[in-house]
Amino acid sequence: MTKNVTVTIDNQSVSVPAGVTIWGAARKLGIHIPTLCHHFDVKPYSGCRVCVVEVQGGRALAAACSFPVTDGLVVFTNSPKVREARRLVVELLLANHPHECLTCDRNQTCELQQIALDLGIHEIRFEKSKPTWEIDDSNPSLVRDPNKCILCGRCVRFCSDRQTCAVYTFANRGFSSIVTPAFGKGLGEVHCTLCGQCSSICPVGAITVKDDTQKVMDAIADPDKVVVVQTAPSVRVALGEMFGQAPGSIVTGKMVAGLKRLGFDRVLDTNFTADVTIMEEATEFLHRLEAGKDMPMITSCSPGWINFLEMFYPDLIHHHSTCKSPQQIFGALVKTYYADKEKIDPAKIVSVSIMPCSAKKYECTRPEMNASGFQDVDYVLTTRELGRLLKSYGVSFNDLAPQPYDPVMGIGTGAGTIFGNTGGVMEAALRTAYEVVTKKTLPAVEFASVRGMKGIREAEVDLDGTKLKVAIAHGLGNARQVMESIKAGNPRNWHFIEVMACPGGCISGGGQPISTDINYRSKRIAGLYDDDRHLKLRKSHENPEVQQLYKEFLKEPCGHLSHKLLHTTIHNAHLDLL
């Protein structure tokens, strides 16, 4: 058991476990120590030196992010010596940083900008000394601007240590140092899964998600187009952060009202097609279980994970469900079933989705995603893009009166809502699979055994005598461990596996609001579970609009029409683009 030690920081004493960093101890006291290279999602690096503090008796300033505390340590975080050192470091960074703050994607959420403001820096004493680099626009979802990079290494460490893709590396020396994909290749020429976690962890605007807002607004302005928008489950507990609300705040009704204010002709819910996904996947799983074929079955609604699977484990693709993601199922249905019911020419429909994910921008352009006879989903906007769009249109979001989704594909269940967090797809599938198999009502709707934030979780679920071993993995590093286990012969005897590319699932997708709250993931997840608990419908197969869809159009899950519209073949399409 680790013993506690007493540390004094800025004349305040605190007891913390031995080995905790000065940064961690200060945080417990409510003392903010600025950092640029350090982030709670990656290992300390001590590269930027913005977090330096004065340790009594020390020969030099110490990096708070990596300096372990000991009993009796005395620290000063804002002495004149410390403040001057921080100002010098930040001024040197600003001298080589483009002065494009007003037009930068990260304006007002830039950590360098905020630290400069906090330190009272109003002029830069140094001249630029770094070369100018070309902007890398080769990736389907992301844009890389090396001129804005401050060499903090966050993207390098996260992509390598957490996602195990190692897309980024440091290259060159001195003033020519740069963070880049290996061998100077473009980000669209390497094995990037498009998860966008690098853009979320970057403290500045060096890596950003491509912006499609103007294309969408042009479509809305076209009187010959009917612009239909769908909203993903996790957007409703994150969008509020763009307007000062706490992570996890449920803003569904205000979001719908805001979209209608922007001029969208129909506002519908991706939760509806999450429920349809469960109908298809639960049926597919039961068919596989009965046949004993291609087990374990893997489920996911994460295109970043699909890209990872295609790149690194193409020989295991047959284990994955053939069901499309809820976004793509929506796209296929809106230009067939919905168009027919609403008497709209599908050629006039522009299908837009609001997603937490940068990889969704690529997913909708995959050549096989045209089962409707058109491109099923035309444009994807991230949560961040929607927030910026609402602000640019002068929408006072927090003052909006909540409005409901439009009918037909506008009703979703709690099972659809929890798709937005790790374990949610698994739990939603189990809620339906249990009642389909047993013909009984679930004694308890919530499957607590599959919940949590552990990187890889296992559980055994009893479907009235049928024992299922399930696993849940989130983050591509954990996904790799699961795939290596399957490659080794599935020694854990799993039947059903859920994988999400992003830590925590879609709640922390690459297009979500960027947060410095260390607990933002758990708060957003709590919001989704809270939304689920307060909905009358909590099982996908009880959704009346889903029941109507099968009665009037699809006829049965995994039937002929379902396979044509809602299922696909996973292959190396992404690699073909490289």
Question: Topology, pairings included?
Answer:
Layout lengths: L3 E6 L2 E6 L4 H7 L23 E4 L6 E2 L10 E3 L3 H16 L15 H8 L23 E3 L9 H9 L5 E4 L6 E4 L15 H5 L5 E3 L3 H9 L4 E6 L20 H11 L3 E4 H22 L5 E3 L3 H10 L13 H9 L2 H5 L7 E7 L4 H4 L15 E4 H10 L21 H4 L6 H15 L17 E8 L2 E9 L1 H12 L8 E5 L19 H14 L10 H11 L5 H7 L6 H4 L2
Helix pairs in contact: 8-10, 8-15
Overall description:
The structure is a single chain. The chain is of the alpha/beta class and 578 residues long. It has three domains: 4-92, Ubiquitin-like (UB roll) (Roll), CATH 3.10.20; 103-209, Alpha-Beta Plaits, CATH 3.30.70; 214-576, Rossmann fold. It has 20 helices and 17 strands. The strands form five sheets. The chain has a five-stranded mixed β-sheet with strand order 2-1-5-3-4, with helices on both faces. Helix 8 crosses helix 10. A hairpin with a 2-residue loop joins strand 15 and strand 16. The longest helix has 22 residues, at 270-291. The protein is globular. The chain has helices at 22-28, 80-95, 111-118, 154-162, 197-201, 213-221, 252-262, 270-291, 303-312, 326-334, 337-341, 360-363, 383-392, 414-417, 424-438, 476-487, 520-533, 544-554, 560-566, 573-576; strands at 4-9, 12-17, 52-55, 62-63, 74-76, 142-144, 168-171, 178-181, 207-209, 226-231, 266-269, 297-299, 349-355, 379-382, 456-463, 466-474, 496-500.
